[in-house]
Each structure stands twice: as C-alpha cells, then as structure tokens.
Design a protein that fits this description.
Largest sheet of chain A: 2 strands, antiparallel
Structural class of chain B: alpha+beta
Distance between the termini of chain B: 43 Å
Structural class of chain A: mainly alpha
Strand order of the largest sheet of chain A: 1-2
Radius of gyration of chain B: 28 Å
Oligomer: heterodimer
Largest sheet of chain B: 4 strands, antiparallel
Number of helices of chain A: 7
Distance between the termini of chain A: 63 Å
Radius of gyration of chain A: 27 Å
C-alpha cells in the first residue's frame, strides 16, 4: 500500500514538473506576433516587460516624495526656502521619470516592428468582416458571440463573408486565420494549406 | 504508513535539486518552460513536505510509539494539544516543522509574485529551493523523525526507518512524555511565532540574491519585499515577546530576559531586520544605502541560520559538542558557503550599487537612519561576541568563560538608549537638511517634555540616575510622536475642514506607512517602559513561612494559608492560596504553584502566582515546601510597569497592520492597464 502510494505520488510529481516542458510545442505556435515580441524582446539591462515595472516604481517614488515634501511643509518640518529648493529638484526628478516612461513607449512601439500595424489592421478587418447585427437592438457583434452584449438577445448566425474577401481557414478545424499565420490559433496545427491558398 | 513520509522527503529533496537546476538553466538560456518547471517544483516540494509533516502529526496524535520521536516526546496521557505541539518539542520534529513553514512561505511567495518580475523569479525560486534542500538534507541525515525502534539480532535496541536484517519491531506501551517546560500554551505559540519570523526572512533574502544576479538593483525589489519583511519581523518581535512572557511566568526568577544563547539566537536577526526595514526607506526615497540594505538582509538571513545552528549544535555549551552530531558541521558548511557566495555576488555588482545622492547635512533624516544602522549593527556584534565568548574562550585558552547579563546590560544598555533617542529625533528631522528655525520648532516641545519629566519623577520618589535618564528619553520620544500626530491632524483640518476625529482617521489612512510606523514606535516605547520599571525599580523579598505567617514587600503583604494538592491529566499540582493586601486593603488572592509531572518528577515546574497591574505586578514563586506543607518558602517580587511590555506588543501588532495595510495605487494600476502582457508592478 505504501509502495503504491509512493509510486502514485512520484508520478504526480513528475507530471507537474514535465507539464510546462511538454506544453512548449503547443504554446509557442498560438502566440500572436505581439505577445511573442513582448515576451522575448530585451533592451538595455532589464528585460522588456520589467523595464515598465522599474520605471513605474521610480515614478511612484518621485510622486510620493513630492507628496511627502508638501506634507512636511504643512506640518512645519521644513522651511519655505528649503521647500522651494527641494520641490524644484523633486519635480525635475519626477518629470524625468515621466519622460523615461514616454520614451519607453515610443521605443516599445518601434521595437514591435512595421508588421505590427499591419497585423493589427488585418485582425480588425477580420473581425469586421465576421460581424453580425443583433436582430433585437441593431448593435454589431462578433460572429463568435451567441448573445448580444447590449440587450442580451440570442444572435442569428453570421452571414458568409462576401466572395471578394479571401479569408483563410484552418484545414483541420475550420477556424478563421489571418494572413501570415503559420499555425492555427484554435487547434495549433500547421496552416501550410491555408497560406498556400491565400498566396494562390 | 509513516514510511511514506520518509519517502516523500527523499522525493522532495530530489525535486528541490531538480528545481534549482532548471530554474538557473532556464534563466541563463531564456527557456520559459524550464523556468515554469522550476516554479512547479516549489509547489511539488511544498505538497511532499506537507505530507511528511501530516504523517508525523498522525503518528504523534495516535500514539505510534514504534517511532523513536513519538516515544521520546509524548505519552498516552498527554493532552491532545501537547501531542500536537510535540512536533516542535524536539530536534527532529522542530526541524521538520521549520521545513514545513519554509515551504509554506516559498509556495505563498511563488503564488503571490506569479506575474511580477519574471526575470528575477528563477533566481528567487533557486534560492528558496536551495534552502529547502538544505533543511531536507539535515532532517534526512541528522535528525530523522521517521526512525523506528527495532531489536536487532544481538538483542540491542536500534533505530532505522526500514527493518534491519534479523531485527524485530519494538512497540513500547507508553512514551516518556514531553519536557514539562513545554507543557504550557506559551510554549505552543512562542515557537510558531518565532519560526514564522525567522523563516520568513528567506523570501526577502531570495529577492536580494535575485536582484544581485540580474543586476536589477533599483527600487523594484525593495518595493516588492517590503511587506514580506514587515510580516516576518512582526512575528519575530511577537515570538521574542512571547518567549519573554513564558520566561517571566514559568521560570520564576522574577525576570523575563537573561541574555542566554537561546534568547540571543532570536534577538540577533531581529536587530538587523529592524535596521533593514528602516534603511530601505532611504533607498526608496533617495537611492542611497543600497549596499547597506543588501548587507542587512544578508546578515538577517544568515543570523536566522546561525541562531538555529547555535541552539541545535550545542556549540555554546561546549565547542566539543559541535562534532557530536552531524547537525553542527552541516549548518556550518551551509552558512559559510552562502556567506561567501553572497559576498562574491555583492562584490561583483558593486559598480551598480553607487548611491544616487549624497548626504547633504548631518542633521537630516538620512544621517539619522545611517546612524541607526550603525548602532543596530554594533548591538548585534556585541551580542554575538558575548554569546560566542564561551566557545571562543574554550577554543583559544581551554577554559570556558561565559559573559552573562551584566556584560550585555552594560554594553547594550547605552546603545539602546542611543537608539531610542534616534527613534525620537529622526521623525523630527527633514529629508536632506533641517534648517535651524525648523529644528527649534520641532525639538522644543519634546525637549521640554524630557526636562519636565525629571522633577515629576523626583516628586514621585525616584532617586535613580538611570531612571531619570530613561524616563527623560521616553518622554522626549513620546512627545515627538504626539507632536507629529497633532500637527498632521491640524494640517489636514486646515486643508479639508474635517472635524478632529475624521481628520485623524483620514490622516492615518492616507499616510499609513508613516503613522503606522509611529504606532509601532509607541509600542516600542511601552516595552522600554516595562524594561526600565523592572530593571531599576523592582522590589523583592523571600521568606520561609509557616501556615498563618506573612511576608511584606514594598506596599504588599501576603499570608500563607496552607498547601493544596490536585491531580492533573499527567501531573500533580501543589498550590498555595495567599490573600494579598496593599497598604492594609484587600486586593484578592495570589496562588503560586508547583507541578510535578509523573514522567519527569525530577524536574518540578513552577507556575508563578501573578497579579498583573497597570502600575506594578505582584509576582510570587512557591520555591519549596516541606512534606505536609506546614512550612513553605516563597520569593516575592514587585515589578513596576511590567504589564506595559505586553501591551506594547499588542500596540506593535496594530502599528504593523496600519503600516502594511494594502492601499490602491491608482496611478500605477491605470498605467499598467495600457500595456498588454506587461509585468505587474509591485503592490
């Protein structure tokens, strides 16, 4: 009995440890260009995602310091002359952190590359082309929605897209895909046929 | 079934080592799947250690006397609560309990920080798993609670987890019982609080290592671990206070702290942790004291290991006991290797640890914090030297020379006084520099309060210089804190027009860190009040009394009316009813006791008869009695202001809650919402 339990526990432990490694093949293909860029791009000493956290921490510290300085003046802990001098200094520091945040945003947009804007536009077009109109209130909804988010009425299935718009679909599960996708976002299988069809 | 616990620990050790490897490999090669696997290793290890601990508890609660640990630490008649707490009543069990709490902290930290600082997390996980792996190794190799009793082929009793060849199982009918000193509820909660405090320091230390390893030495790691340091600090403080209360009530010598090595073992990390909690404010605010902060958290963690090494290896009693068990050498090796490992990392990253600013003036908050760091470290060094003097003197000269309470009081007393003065002065100083006009404005009332306290105490009858000085300093600090509150409320009322009560509440809500910190300082003041009262104004007396006779100490008279005997579940209790009079007026009855545990009659336990009071405690010890109780000997102490020490502990809890209470950071959360997949800022 003890041996059996030990074996079961060991197997459970192995499963928990191996799961993230085995999931790797399925996880990577379904990532969008945006998410994979965000996860792997790295500028300067800090990884990309954590630069924001550090900049925000610096900004919060500067804003908090200004708050406390103002409070110290109200309770009479510092003189007016010192307050003026310190406040100027702290405002410059705080402005610097805000500027750094703005620069980070600009850098992050350019780092995502020119294809980013194209990918977004394609996704938007895909969503627009697959919209349905609620028969109850007339609000647009996605073809994947079953109920209207405005009035709650059940939605009719979407009309097929116009023949002139070429929408690639996954040959395995039939889910729509975007031009440029290499793997299906729904089932994870390769979209070689879909890409060839689009190119054709 | 308990064998499964042993197997679980072996598996946990293997998983820990795997987790360290994949975490570091994943970090170095940027392989998120390995990092995730390393993170899962923490959850798996936590589950396995929990299983092992549950199985030991099962064995303790169901009297599985075939286990060596159970037979040596419990008995059939032991109350259930003490069977449960017997887990931390002995070496092997308490190490397993330590391991359990360590895994608890590791799992909680892994979960809490799951979406923050992804580049640091693998190193955090590696440090947590390394510490866990070390303690599992100690339990498996040096203090195994799963050892069973066997009679080997030669008829000798031996211990092993699995049956040796030719041996037969032994299953004693009853156990030897738990140490009588541990059979009271203070000793149930004191180790829990202390362990939660000491073990909890592993999390901020792990983040410090991760910050060094990744070079992320800005404010992020400080912000992340602030509350994860404050909470263990609170538990450590409470653990020390609970231990003092246990000593006060159970040991019966009229005091609460003897500077013995076991007490010092918990006090040393408290000193550096307190310095760290204050010092990180300077780094957050002004980007200074970065090296200090890393050194302080490093020392704190090493001292928690060193403290448990001191108490478990027996090295303080005799340096020769160091090698009698593998525990001492294992701890020594781990402490030395982590010491040098961290030092190497720190030296490597020194160029990144330059201060962002310089000290502008001597009279500034930054200077006072730097001074408090120095004073805390001095007290730590003095206490450490005093604690280790005995084994050092034995090693160097061959003679065991101990430094006792007089050394510690004489060296640390003035340093603590300096610390109290700093505690009062620092909040009155401004950041960067304090102009002479603001110094006059901020220090006038507190200094006046200190001066006024002297004639007041003189009128109340004090003639002790130490008493005058002590109360003057306490008055200075208390007046400074009161002034902070009054001025803060006044400023808020001026700005908002709120009435006083609302202004006070909102002031504390909006500035919880500052005003919660002041509440903690008030708690420290109350503890200091109790210490000064007990150290300098205690009265004592002792007498052999026949039935009907009385003893008078200070204003109190106690009369011995005779001895009573009662049977407990596993002990016989002897108690003496003593009516108490103060200046001739009835003040109730005090009942000091002696307990004789059936399994440990050579170790009678004292239960002090205590009448606590706002101004003084009356404390009576039944030191001994003749066979029939016709005469009994008593020690009586009158301890002024002692209750304030325990009230101070409660005030500290309140202060930490106020300081650490979560507040919404509206600016931060709004900014993060803009960026998809971004790391979450520290809460």
């Amino acid at each position: 009995m003890v041996l059996l339990l030990a074996v079961l526990i060991t197997l459970a432990a192995l499963a928990a440890l191996a799961y993230p490694i085995l999931r790797r093949d399925r996880a990577t293909p379904s990532s969008s260009a945006i998410e994979s860029t965000l996860a792997t791009a790295s500028v300067g000493a800090l990884p990309y995602q954590e630069q924001l956290a550090e900049l925000l921490a610096q900004r919060d510290a500067a804003v908090q310091a200004l708050r406390e300085l103002s409070f110290d003046r109200q309770v009479g802990k510092i003189s007016d002359d010192d307050f003026t001098a310190f406040e100027t200094n702290l405002r410059l520091t705080a402005a610097g952190t805000y500027r750094a945040l703005d620069e980070w945003e600009v850098q992050s947009d350019s780092r995502l590359g020119p294809s980013f804007a194209g990918d977004v536009a394609t996704r938007v077009e895909l969503l627009r082309s697959s919209q349905v109109i609620c028969g109850s209130c007339g609000r647009p909804a996605l073809s994947s929605d079953k109920f209207c988010s405005a009035c709650g009425a059940m939605l009719e299935p979407a009309a097929p897209p116009p023949a002139t718009i070429v929408t690639p679909v996954c040959p395995h599960c039939g889910s729509p895909a975007a031009p440029g996708d290499r793997f299906c976002a729904a089932c994870g299988k390769p979209l070689v046929e879909a890409s060839k069809a689009l190119a054709g | 079934m308990t064998d499964l616990g042993y197997i679980a620990l072996i598996l946990a050790l293997v998983v820990s080592l795997y987790g360290i490897l994949v975490s570091l490999l994943g970090a170095r090669r940027s392989l998120p799947e390995l990092i995730s696997s390393g993170r899962n290793a923490i959850y798996v290890v936590g589950g396995l250690v929990l299983l092992a601990a549950v199985l030991i508890w099962y064995a303790l609660l169901t009297d599985q006397f075939q286990l060596e640990y159970v037979v040596t630490h419990t008995e059939r008649n032991l109350p259930t609560l003490y069977k449960f707490s017997a887990l931390w009543g002995g070496q092997a069990g308490s190490l397993t309990f330590w391991l359990l709490l360590l895994c608890g902290y590791a799992v909680a930290a892994t979960w809490f920080f799951r979406s923050q600082a992804p580049s640091m997390k693998p190193y955090v996980n590696a440090v947590l798993l390394l510490t866990i792996a070390f303690f599992i190794s100690v339990v498996l190799y040096a203090a195994n609670p799963f050892l069973r009793l066997w009679r080997d082929a030669a008829g000798q009793v031996t211990t092993a987890v699995f049956m040796p060849v030719g041996a037969t199982a032994l299953n004693p009918a009853d156990g030897q019982g738990l140490n009588p000193q541990l059979q009271n509820y203070w000793m149930v909660i004191h180790p829990i609080a202390l362990y939660l405090g000491m073990i909890g320091m592993t999390v901020p230390f792990a983040f410090a290592v991760a910050a060094l390893a990744t070079g992320q030495l800005g404010n992020t790691w400080i912000k992340m671990i602030r509350k994860w340091t404050l909470v263990p600090w609170l538990f450590l403080t409470l653990g020390i206070l609970l231990g003092s209360q246990w000593a006060y009530i159970e040991l019966g010598w009229g005091g609460y702290w003897a500077w013995d090595p076991v007490e010092n073992a918990s006090f040393l990390p408290w000193l550096t942790a307190t310095a760290f909690i204050h010092s990180i404010m300077i780094q957050e605010r002004r980007g200074m004291l970065k090296v200090w902060n890393l050194v302080l958290i490093w020392l704190t963690w090493e001292l928690t290991l060193f403290g448990t090494f001191l108490t478990r290896s027996g090295v303080v009693e005799s340096v020769h006991s160091f090698a009698l068990s593998p525990i001492g050498p294992m701890f020594a090796a781990f402490i030395v290797s982590t010491l040098f490992g961290f030092l190497a990392l720190l030296i490597m990253r020194l160029p990144l640890l330059k201060s962002d600013n310089q000290l502008d003036a001597v009279l500034s908050r930054e200077t006072s914090f730097l001074t408090q760091n120095v004073v805390f470290v001095l007290i730590m060094v003095a206490t450490l030297l005093g604690t280790l003097f005995r084994p050092i003197s034995e090693w160097v000269t061959g003679d065991k020379i101990s430094l006792n309470a007089p050394y510690f009081n004489r060296v640390n007393g003035p340093l603590f006084m300096a610390l109290l003065i700093l505690m009062g002065a620092a909040p009155l100083l401004a950041w960067r520099r304090s102009a002479p006009s603001t110094l006059r404005k901020n220090f006038t009332w507190p200094l006046l309060a200190a001066l006024v306290s002297i004639p007041v105490l003189f009128v109340l009858g004090n003639r002790s210089m130490a008493g005058f000085l002590g109360f003057a300093v306490l008055s200075f600090v208390a007046a400074g804190i009161l002034q902070e509150y009054v001025r803060g409320v006044r400023a808020r009322r001026y700005a908002t027009g709120e009435p006083w009560p609302a202004a006070l509440v909102n002031l504390v809500r909006r500035n919880g860190r500052r005003y919660g910190g002041y509440i903690v300082h008030i708690g420290v003041l109350l503890i200091a009040l109790g210490i000064i009262g007990n150290e300098f104004f205690q009265s004592e007396g002792q007498a052999n009394l026949a039935v009907g006779e009385s003893i008078t100490v200070a204003d109190y008279t106690l009369t011995y009316e005779g001895l009573n005997a009662n049977e407990g579940p596993n002990y016989t209790e002897f108690s003496a009813d003593m009516p108490l009079l103060k200046n001739g007026r009835q003040r109730g009855t005090i009942v000091p006791k002696k307990l004789l545990y059936h399994k440990n009659e050579e170790q009678p336990m004292t239960e002090v008869g205590l009448r606590p009071g706002v101004f003084e405690d009356v404390y009576v010890v039944l030191a001994g009695f003749d066979g029939m109780g016709q005469t009994a000997s008593f020690k009586v102490y009158v301890n002024p202001l002692m209750s304030w020490m325990w009230i101070g502990g409660l005030v500290i809890i309140l202060g930490v809650l106020v300081s650490a209470w979560p507040r919404k950071g509206a600016v931060a959360s709004e900014a993060v919402a803009r960026v998809p997949g971004a790391a979450q800022p520290a809460r």
